[in-house]
Amino acid sequence: MKNKKIVLLGLVAFLAFALTACIFESDEDGLSNWLSDQGMPSSYKVQTLNIPDLSIASAEVFLDTFPTSADYQAVLGHTANLSHDLVLDIAFMPDSGFMKSLSESDTAGAYLSLFWLRPLYTSENYPSDSLPVEEDLKLNLSWKLDTGSGKKFLDSISKVADTTWYRSLEKWTADGSADTVYAVNHAAGDTSIRMDLPAALLEDLKKARGAIHLQLRLSAPEAKHLYRFYGDASNYPPIFAPYADSLNFLNPAPTPFRMANVVKNEEECKECLVLHGGVFDSLVVELPSEPILKALSEFYGDEFPYSDGDKNDVRQTVILAQLTMSRDDSQGESELGLPIQVVAGSYVDSADKKIRRMESYLLNNEVILESGHPNLIFHEGDSLTLQLTEGARDFINKASDGRSMKFIMRMGYPFLQEKDTTYATYRTADGDTSYLRLSYFDYARYDFSKAMENPVTLKLWLASKRGDK
C-alpha cells in the first residue's frame, strides 16, 4: 500500500476508527483502551454470539414524494422507474417599453438556459463512459402565469414560504402547456443547454401587464438519462430570456428565485421492497425478538428479558452488532456504475421517546482489504452487512417492555475506494487527492424483496458484567 498523508479534515474520523478497528483483531491493549473510552471497565471480557437463520418479521418501504428544493442542484428526466420534473419560480417587473416591443414584434421569442452541473460531469471520478450523451429529449412544458401591480405584488410572492410553495406543486393546475422535442448533445465541454419556449407561452407573456409571476414546469418522463443542472442559488442559475428581436432582450434576464424537483414513482409493483438513490426512500425492517432473546438466554444461561429493578437490563453492553443478509445485484440498476454504500439507522429510546438514530460505522480492516467494505451494493460478493450497534444495545437492555429490534436502510453515496481502510479523503505520496466517495448521489434502484425473504444472521460482540465473564 502506498504511503499516505491524511488531510486534516479526515484526521479526527480516522483516529476514531483506528481505535475501534482492534475489536476485530487480537490487540488486547487496544481493546482495553477502547472500552475505557466508552466508560466501561477494561476487565470486561468481549464475547461473540452468532444468531443465524433469523426470518424478517416485517419490512416496508417508504417513499417521500414531497417536492424538494432544487436551489443548488437540479435534476430532470427519468431513471430507475422515477420521473423527476423541474419547476422554476420566476418573478420580475419588465418596463412597459420592452413589453410594448414584445407584443408588437413578429420575431419575438423566449428561451430558457440551463447550465450543466459541471463539478459532477468534469470530475475525474465521474464514469468516462457516461458522456457524451445524444438524445432527442421529448419535453412537456407547462406554466402558470399571474400578473399584479408593481413591487407590492412581487413582495407578496416572495413572502410565500418555500414549504408552502412545495405543497402547492403536488396539485399542479397549469394555465397552458406544450410538447416539444429538443436535440440534446451533451459533450464533455458543453456548459449549458438552451430550450426555446413554446409560442403559446410567448403569447401569454405578450398579454401581460405590470409585474409578472411565472411558474415553469419541465417534464421529460421518457428521457433515457437523468440530466443534472445548477440551481438558482448557485453561481450559474438558469436564465429566462424573452426577446423582441435579435438585439432587444429583456435586460437583465430574470433568473428563478427558487426551484423544486417533483418526483413521480412509476414502480409497477407497489408491494416490492425497492429503494431508490437520491431521494428520501427508506426501508424499515423489523427483526423477531423471540429468537434473539432465546439465543441470549442459552448463551448466558439465565433469563432474557430481565424484568427486575428498573427494567433496564445492563448486565452486558453491545460493543458491536452486525446484520448480514443476502443480496443480488441483478435486482438493481445504477446510472454511474459505482458501488453504493447502504446506510442504516436504528429506532432507540431517548428520554422515553422512540427516535431514529443513524448508526456509526466501525471498520473491519481485514475484511475490507480482502473483499471491500461489506455494506456496499453493486459490488463483488453476494451479501450485505449492516452495523446496528445502537439498535441492538437498546433492544437488549430494554426488551422487557416487549419491543422489537427495528431499523431503516437507505442508499448513500457512490463509493470510490471500496478496499481502502483509511475511510477519509487523503493525499497520496504523489500529492494526488484520493476521495472516499462521490459527492453526488446515484439515482439508482435496488429491489430487496428477495433478500428479505431469505434468513439473515445477527452477530453480536458483547462486553459482559456477569461474574468472571
Task: Itemize the secondary structure elements and their pairings.
Layout (H helix, E strand, L loop, with lengths): L3 E3 L1 H14 L6 H10 L7 E10 L3 E7 L3 E2 L3 E7 L2 E11 L3 H9 L4 E7 L2 H4 L11 E16 L1 H9 L3 H8 L6 E11 L5 E5 L2 H8 L4 E9 L6 E5 L8 E5 L14 E8 L8 E3 L3 E8 L1 H12 L15 E11 L5 E2 L6 E11 L2 E6 L6 H7 L4 E2 L5 E5 L1 H9 L7 E10 L11 E3 L4 E2 L10 E3 L1 H5 L2 E9 L5
Antiparallel strand pairs: 1-24, 2-27, 3-16, 4-14, 5-6, 5-12, 6-11, 6-14, 7-10, 7-13, 8-9, 8-11, 15-26, 16-23, 17-22, 17-27, 18-26, 19-20, 19-21, 19-23, 24-25
Summarize the structure.
By secondary structure, this protein is an alpha+beta fold. The protein has helices at 8-21, 28-37, 96-104, 118-121, 150-158, 162-169, 199-206, 289-300, 365-371, 389-397, 449-453; strands at 4-6, 45-54, 58-64, 68-69, 73-79, 82-92, 109-115, 133-148, 176-186, 192-196, 211-219, 226-230, 239-243, 258-265, 274-276, 280-287, 316-326, 332-333, 340-350, 353-358, 376-377, 383-387, 405-414, 426-428, 433-434, 445-447, 456-464. The longest helix is centred in the first third of the chain and has 14 residues, at 8-21.
